[in-house]
Amino acid sequence: MNGPTIADHFDTLAAKLLTVAWDDLDDVERAAFEFFEDLTADPSIVHARLEELPDRPELLNLCEHYDILDKIVLFADEESGVRVRLHVFLPGYFDRPHNHRWTYASRILRGQYRHYLFGNAELDDHVDPQKLEVIQVREEPVGVGYALHHTMVHAVVAEPFTVSLVVRGPAVKDRFLVTDRQTGEAWWQYGAGQESAQEALQKRMTPARLQEVIGRLAEWDLF
Predict the structure, then answer these.
(1) How many CA atoms lie within 13 A of 86 on its CB side?
(2) Nearest 10 degrees: CA dihedral of 140, 144, 150, 153?
(3) pLDDT at 67
(4) How much of the chain exceeds pLDDT 90, in percent?
(5) What angle do CA 27, 105, 16 make, to 5 degrees?
(6) What is the per-residue burial (b if ≥16 Cβ within 10 Å, else e) of 197-213?
(7) What is the pLDDT of residues 162-207, one digit of tens each?
(8) What does the CA dihedral 12, 192, 71, 184 come to, rounded to 10 degrees?
């Protein structure tokens, strides 16, 4: 009988995230940072998970490719909604002020991004994006991590090919609001459960794209 593999070790470490109190940001940060340390201390754990993704359709089908961002799902617990992802920010990446459906934690593995924090603003259909004020600006370089509550409004401008490791908690709402301070527009975005099959297919990462991203991660000596 075969024993546990290195890839199995990833699941063992990630399983600890299922006990996190996601409404307690201190607990989120503590558990996520411990998880990040475990993975960065032994890159072979993530490497093994990346190598097996083509044979893990339940994870591969959650991976997404956009013009300015690749999202690789390394772990997903269907019952709780907890996920672990790698984000690769492509040239030209920026996002508009928004909140999230879930609380998350992140650590930068390569590159850096400029992080704009607008505070715990009440966002609804009547928000005036042009009145959103930046409360804090941070540089998030390699090795830096943070935890962000789902109510926090923020935006990121990333250097090309910045890579981050992300742990996201259970979704606590069905939608989140995106705002555009230039045009004054705001619109809701919804979770995958409310997308059409065509919308899901359009953003789904192909196996060929996955191999291309894995190759880049290897070239950068990350995993």
Answers:
(1) 25
(2) -20
(3) 94
(4) 76
(5) 55
(6) eeeeeeeebeeeebeeb
(7) 999 999 999 999 888 888 888 888 888 887 777 777 877 889 999 9
(8) -130
